[in-house]
Amino acid sequence: MSLFKNLSAYDDRSARLSGIALMVLSIFMFSFGDAMGKFLVGTYSVGQLLFLRAVAALLLLSPLIWKQRHQFLHLERPGLQLFRVVLSTLEVAAFFLATVYLPLADVITYYLAGPIFVTAMSAIFLGEKVGWRRWTAILIGFCGVLIALRPSAQTVSLPALIALGGSLSFATLMLITRSLRKTPDIVMASSQFVGTFSLGAVLSVFNWVPPTPGSLVFFALAGLISVTALFCVNRSLKLAPASVVVPYQYSMIVWAVIFGFVVFGDVPQIATIVGAAIIIGAGFYIYLRERDLGRASEEVNPPA
Question: What is the DSSP track for 93-126?
Answer without folding.
Answer: HHHHHHHHHS-HHHHHHHHTTHHHHHHHHHHHHS
